[in-house]
Design goal:
The protein is an all-beta fold. The protein contains no helices and eleven strands. The strands form two sheets. Strands 2, 4, 5, 6, 9, 10 and 11 form a seven-stranded mixed β-sheet that branches. It has a four-stranded antiparallel β-sheet with strand order 1-3-8-7, with no helix packed on it. A hairpin with a 6-residue loop joins strand 5 and strand 6. The relative contact order is 0.31.
Length: 127
């Protein structure tokens, strides 16, 4: 079992930056790829970014590419999402998720390929 806790959300203005953190506990953190997803009101949850176990591979949704950066610190069991140039359309609840490695899954952009989820943190961007 992996327990994930997000933090760092808040209310900001368009153009501002925020850094989300997701602290993991319970199992060896480097055994998991990590992802960030978000869900805006009235919309389905969508992929934002993902990172491989070592941090050497990263993937982004087109909507955030060039503005958001995902990173991880395996010594601290934490994954981060640095969000720059925020837009009102980035307003959502942001969730981190962990995908168990080594069992044949190759995609990091599908929420049903993730095994553990945090409770989410709200990000609100005003115009």
């Amino acid at each position: 079992q992996v327990h994930l806790v997000e933090s760092g959300g808040g209310l900001v203005q368009a153009g501002d930056s925020l850094r989300l953190s997701c602290a993991a506990s319970g199992r060896t953190f480097s055994n998991y790829a990590m992802g960030w997803f978000r869900q805006a009101p009235g919309k389905e949850r969508e992929f934002v970014a993902a990172i491989g176990w070592s941090g050497g591979s990263t993937f982004y949704a087109n909507s955030v590419k060039g503005r958001f950066t995902i990173s991880r610190d395996n010594a601290k069991n934490t994954v981060y999402l640095q969000m720059n140039s925020l837009k009102p359309e980035d307003t959502a609840v942001y969730y981190c998720a962990a995908q168990t490695l080594g069992i044949g899954r190759t995609r990091l952009d599908r929420e049903y390929d993730y095994d553990y989820w945090g409770q989410g943190t709200q990000v609100t961007v005003s115009s």
